[in-house]
Design goal:
It is built from 1 helix and 11 strands, in the order H-E-E-E-E-E-E-E-E-E-E-E. The protein has a single domain (about 25-150), classed as Immunoglobulin-like, CATH 2.60.40.1890. A hairpin with an 8-residue loop joins strand 2 (about 30-40) and strand 3. The longest helix has 20 residues, at about 1-20. The relative contact order is 0.23. The chain is globular, with a radius of gyration of 18 Å. Strands 1, 2, 3, 4, 5, 6, 7, 8, 9, 10 and 11 form an 11-stranded mixed β-sheet that branches. By secondary structure, the chain is mainly beta. It binds copper (II) ion.
């Protein structure tokens, strides 16, 4: 049935286009593959934002995310968030974030994240935010954070419920370092 085949081909093309446009390009740097780089819109006046991404190490040696920079932020730090006696605290990882060989490390709300500090302007949904990551072995890697809505919990733009960790509500000046 030629008409059925043709229809199937068209459907395949359409599906592929949709899948491709909904997903940010993976960035390869040496043995690392960086994907799902995203951020969240900041409500008016907020000077800090979070940066999230997934780093996969396909090599045979560990690498380390040591620092990051962004034109949109005066300063970027690599942070860890953890529960301490029932209090959510975060601290900069001074010696960097290690990605062991064969492992995938996810920076996500409630865990590791990039802390974008001294933001020059609010982050708006739909913005594409260039960030340069500095790895010990892979060197400088340019990625683009796709800014999702204020309550988003993932790169797909899904709005999180009320129980989601809301970074912008935390007062950085009172943070335990
Ligand atoms: Cu932080």
């Amino acid at each position: 049935m030629p008409s059925f085949n043709r229809m199937a081909t068209i459907l395949t093309i359409v599906t592929t286009l949709v899948a491709t446009s909904a997903r940010a390009e993976d960035v390869k740097a040496g043995d690392l593959v960086i994907s799902q780089a995203w951020s969240r819109a900041t409500p008016g006046g907020a000077k800090t934002g979070g940066g999230y991404l997934t780093i996969e190490n396909k090599g045979s040696a560990p690498d380390k995310l040591v620092s990051a920079t962004a034109d949109a932020a005066g300063k970027v730090e690599v942070h860890e968030m953890a529960m301490n006696n029932g209090v959510m605290t975060m601290r900069p990882l001074d010696s960097g974030l290690t990605i062991d060989p064969g492992k995938t490390v996810k920076l996500a709300p409630g865990g590791y994240h990039l802390m974008l500090m001294e933001l020059k302007r609010p982050l708006k949904q739909g913005d594409k935010l260039p960030v340069t990551l500095q790895f010990e072995k892979a060197g400088k890697v340019a990625v683009t954070l796709e800014v999702q809505g204020v309550g988003a919990q993932g790169p797909g733009g899904s709005a999180g419920g009320g129980d989601g960790m809301k970074m912008q509500e935390m007062d950085h000046s009172k943070m335990k370092m």
